[in-house]
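Researcher: Re-running this chain for the archive, since the previous output was lost when a drive failed. Same request as before.
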Amino acid sequence: MIIHINGHAGVGKLTVAKLLSSDFDAWLIDNHAFIDLATTCCKWRGPGYFAMIGKLMQLVFDGLSSKADQEVIIFTVW
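Model: Regenerated structure tokens:
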């Protein structure tokens, strides 16, 4: 099962996701994980920044796609 939480900054997406993750023993993929990793490789919003986030997301999604049928995966998105 995939749970997708979308909302504006500061509304509590991660807080809710952490609670759900605990209740469902789920994988939690927070959008800040992608942002933080991308900013270690590229200047914030600079050349290649958004492409890097896209590549990181695709890599994670590919890795988790086989788990979605058996496990709960929670995503937060800004």
